[in-house]
Design goal:
The protein is α/β, with parallel strands linked by helices. About 25% of the residues lie in helices and about 20% in strands. The chain has 2 domains: about 1-135, Alpha-Beta Barrel (TIM Barrel), CATH 3.20.20.70; about 145-230, no CATH class. The protein has helices spanning about 5-15, 30-40, 55-70, 85-90, 195-210, and strands spanning about 20-25, 45-50, 75-80, 95-100, 120-125, 130, 145-155, 155-165, 175, 180-185, 185, 225-230. The strands form 4 sheets. Strands 1-2-3-4 form a 4-stranded parallel beta sheet, covered by helices on one side. A 4-stranded mixed beta sheet has the order 9-7-8-12, with no helix packed on it. Strand 1 (about 20-25), helix 2 (about 30-40) and strand 2 (about 45-50) form a beta-alpha-beta unit. Helix 1 crosses helix 2. The two termini are about 25 Å apart. This is nicotinate phosphoribosyltransferase.
């Protein structure tokens, strides 16, 4: 999303890494991205990556599309919080590579925190800030810079409020959730070393105490704290 179009992004990646690279195809529209990927890299493209959606059906349709375009040797890589169970469900699908991250250590249904970097804005050649967002059906997010707060009632979180645009939130927004830890590639001193570990431990204790009872369940489900965009 740092580029003005998906085709520009694909061309930049192919120029940097060659046609044996892996192109992410689920940022906007998968069938269109497959066409673009093969047009840019040619039928010798190394692989395409799918990171969202109904993987069993998507993988089959992507395989058929790649074969139709002559990219019969192009591999399909899948990710998206895979574990042993989701991998087993894809046993009959034409998947070449499974990318396991979140569950690589935990597995067996143990809860894990998902950490994902999302680009929301970038500076164009003219110096203007351009808001961007992913448009795949299951991972849509409002574009642009945001400010987030957690609202509390009697010390328990009731909702998380996300303000779009400049930080014009009011005092009733709640506890700020976004803090600058790294700026221009430099880690702030208070987050380094033993002091940083102690700070993180204290923050964890506070955040854990704010969770409602539903936030302590181990099984997957709806978010325990609703998110409100305004």
């Amino acid at each position: 999303m740092l580029h003005d179009s998906e085709e520009e992004a694909f061309r930049a990646q192919v120029e940097a890494f060659g046609t044996d690279t892996t192109l992410l195809i689920d940022t906007f529209d998968i069938p269109s991205a497959v066409d673009t990927a093969i047009r840019v890299a040619g039928p010798s493209l190394g692989a395409v990556l799918i990171d969202s959606g109904d993987l069993p059906s998507l993988v089959r349709s992507v395989r058929a599309q790649l074969d139709t375009l002559g990219a019969t040797a192009t591999k399909i890589v899948v990710t998206n919080d895979l574990n042993e169970n989701t991998i087993a469900s894809l046993r009959s699908a034409p998947v070449d590579v499974f990318g396991v991250g979140t569950a690589v250590v935990t597995g067996s249904g143990a809860p894990a925190a998902g950490m994902v970097y999302k680009l929301v804005e970038h500076e164009d050649a003219a110096g203007n800030w351009v808001a961007v967002s992913k448009r795949s059906p299951e991972k849509q997010n409002p574009a642009g810079r945001k400010v987030a707060h957690r609202r509390l009632v009697d010390g328990i979180a009731t909702e998380e409020v996300v303000d779009l645009g400049p930080n014009d939130s009011t005092a009733d927004s709640g506890r700020p959730l976004i803090h600058d830890i790294i700026s221009h590639g430099v880690i702030r001193d208070e987050y380094r070393g033993a002091a940083g570990v102690a700070r993180a431990r204290d923050h964890h204790a506070i955040a854990l105490a704010e969770l409602p009872a539903t936030g302590r369940r181990l099984s997957p489900g709806e978010p325990a704290i609703p998110t409100v965009f305004r």
